[in-house]
Structures are given as C-alpha cells and as structure tokens.
Amino acid sequence: NAGVTQTPKFQVLKTGQSMTLQCAQDMNHNSMYWYRQDPGMGLRLIYYSASEGTTDKGEVPNGYNVSRLNKREFSLRLESAAPSQTSVYFCASSPKRQAYEQYFGPGTRLTVT
Amino acid sequence: AQSVSQHNHHVILSEAASLELGCNYSYGGTVNLFWYVQYPGQHLQLLLKYFSGDPLVKGIKGFEAEFIKSKFSFNLRKPSVQWSDTAEYFCAVISYNTDKLIFGTGTRLQVFP
Prior knowledge:
The complex is a heterodimer. Helix content of chain A is 0%, strand content 51%. Chain A has strands spanning 4-7, 10-13, 19-25, 31-38, 42-49, 56-57, 64-68, 74-78, 87-94, 103-104, 108-112. Chain B has strands at 4-5, 10-14, 19-21, 24-25, 31-38, 45-50, 56-58, 64-68, 73-78, 87-95, 101-103, 107-112. In chain B, strands 2, 5, 6, 10, 11 and 12 form a six-stranded mixed beta sheet that branches. Chain B has a four-stranded antiparallel beta sheet with strand order 3-9-8-7, with no helix packed on it. In chain B, strands 1-4 form a two-stranded antiparallel ribbon. In chain B, a hairpin with a 5-residue loop joins strand 7 and strand 8. The termini of chain B are far apart.
C-alpha cells in the first residue's frame, strides 16, 4: 500500500514550457487535491476533485489545469510555466469530500527559470 | 472568508522545554480541526484531529491540542519536546459548508539538544 505517490520529485522548467505533474493513490479515496506550498504562506489549494469526473477550482487556480483521469489518478498541468509557479506541489486524497483528514504525497519541487 | 492564523512563525526551544503553538480560525460554523507536521524533507503527516466530543485531543508522539470553541482556537501542546520534534507544524480547518481544508501559514519549530 503505497498511499499517495507523485512524479516527478524534482523538475526544472524554462519559462513558457509545459509539464504535467502526476498523482496516484491506492486507498480507494473519492476526493483528491492539489496544493502548492510557498515559504511563509502555508499550503494553498489549487484544484480539487470531490469525486471521479468532477473538478473544482481552489484558492489559486490561475495558470493550472487538472484532469481526474480515473478514481486513482489526478494530474496537474502547467500549460505555460512562469517563475511565479516555482513552488513545492503536494497532492492529497481523502475518503470523502467532507470533513475527513487528507493524506499527502511526498511532493514535487518545481523550479521555473 | 475563512482563515486560519498561526501567530508563532518560528519557535526555538531547548530539549525538555514545554511547547504551545497557537492556532485561531475565523469560521463560526461547524468545523473539523487538524494539526499536521512536516519533518525536514518529508511530506505532511497528520498529528491529531478534532471532529467532535472531548475538546482535548491526543495525537501521536505525545502531542495534544485543546479546542476552545468560544475562542475559536485549537492550540497544540507538548509537555517536553525532543530534538526529533524539529519540524514545521500546520494548523488546518475544514468547514462542513465549504469542504475545503484551509491551512495556516505554519510554525517552524527548532529544538536544540
């Protein structure tokens, strides 16, 4: 039981390049989330998916898109990377949409130059 | 808008000292409350949670937190810290209305032997 896995662990992009961050969970959870973590700002929600087939914007969605490919996988895409998107990205999942604790992946450290 | 405040940004303690980290939230409805810990280079892990019942909750590694509804607070405590408690600590709140987990900005704890 691997929990929540993320790939890649590290990535360096040039401004304007695109990439997709992958996330998968093997806990049969319904809800999945993408956060970014920046120094002094805690974690901020980018997008979330309450269930397979649905996605919703979080606090900071601009510049990102997501796909809930199936119940296990939830990917985050940067179409045209900007230096402001340099951050650590965490994927998380929870059993139900409401009020349950979230389980986090190991994170992806992204640098945009 | 719902928010979570952690007033201590950086705390430095010696081993065996007592710890109290403050957390206040702004939402007045029914909430669930969490403390997460992030050890250096690792992902977030759940330390403890409050859903209902006894407002004094005990978590892993000797941590506890007290929910005081009248003060909108959920402070984290530990009677005697260890060097291995060096980490960043995040308070988080989820309301039944919004379904979104809101994080505080985090408190960095350094414990010296």
